[in-house]
Amino acid sequence: MNPISNIWKHPKTSVAGLLIAIVTVAGVLSQQGVTLGMAGSGTVVTLAGAIATALLGLLAQDPVASNSSERETSSASLSNLSNLSNSSSSSSATAKLGVWALIALLLPLPLAGGCSGTTVAQQIVNWTPALDSAVAVVDSTAAVLDPAAAPIFTAATVGFDAASNVLVAQAKAYLSNPNATVLAQLQTAIVTFQQQVNASLLSAAKIVNPASQQKALADINAIATVVNALLALVESVSSKAAVARMAAAATIKLEAVQPYLNKGQAAEMVAAHYGEPVEVARIQVAQAEWIAEGAGF
């Protein structure tokens, strides 16, 4: 088999294989402490792995416009036209992946690249309207759940209002008086909130009624998106020792709640907040999660 010819005939399969290889190698290098240099507050290795993961998702969602398999025709000319159309569609899909990869590399990644503590604190304040809106929705969710699910949901989310208020207050305190003590309090506040959200996702997943479970997880996910974004921001301006302390306090890891996180919803919220394409936001979310998990969250 001619490998060059095979790559040319099956570009999407070849690209997918290459991306999987990048993710695998990046994971091994990260475990061995190999960084290949810094990229913002993270490393080149983690950035490459995160981008490859996101592009795999984009590749899987690219539609392939193929009608030739659904229709039978005796005309050879129509068959040739269909094959040409399929080839153009595949080339377009591959080109789109390349474009978004280039955009992802050229644009700053706001979820993982806070310039300074004050910048991050201001971004937390900027996220406050979205956070307040999500918390307000959660406060009214129990009323529309089935009777058995309502108390489970209420118990799981009862601390969200207080945690949100503390987090925003600490961000504003840092803006007024930026110092290591207030930053440490901000780090504690975001980890505490993130752990409450993770616990609530696990609790909501135990709701038996399918409709109530779906509603509960969707509403909690809106808060999870904001909180995980803010965690990435705070992590980006924290020392290695501080990140290690934060991760040690995070007993419910992201891995445990991954099945209940809505990546599409998260990308849409991030895209709307930063005024950017959803595809770019999807890469940013993937990078933030990759870095957080690598740090022990």
Walk me through the structure.
The structure is a single chain. With 297 residues, the chain is mainly alpha-helical. The protein folds into two domains: 3-106, no CATH class; 117-295. Helix content is 75%, strand content 1%. The chain contains 13 helices and two strands, in the order ααββααααααααααα. The protein has helices at residues 3-9, 11-31, 44-61, 76-106, 117-141, 149-157, 160-176, 180-204, 210-236, 240-249, 254-257, 263-274, 278-295, and strands at residues 38-39, 42-43. Strands 1-2 form a two-stranded antiparallel sheet. Strand 1 (38-39) and strand 2 form a beta hairpin. The longest helix is centred in the first third of the chain and has 31 residues, at 76-106. Residues 62-88 and 93-108 have low confidence and may be disordered.
In short:
This protein is an all-alpha fold and 297 residues long. The protein is built from 13 helices and two strands.
Topology:
Blueprint: H1 3-9, H2 11-31, E1 38-39, E2 42-43, H3 44-61, H4 76-106, H5 117-141, H6 149-157, H7 160-176, H8 180-204, H9 210-236, H10 240-249, H11 254-257, H12 263-274, H13 278-295
Antiparallel strand pairs: 1-2
Helix pairs in contact: 2-3, 3-4, 3-13, 5-7, 5-9, 6-8, 7-8, 8-9, 8-10, 9-12, 9-13, 12-13
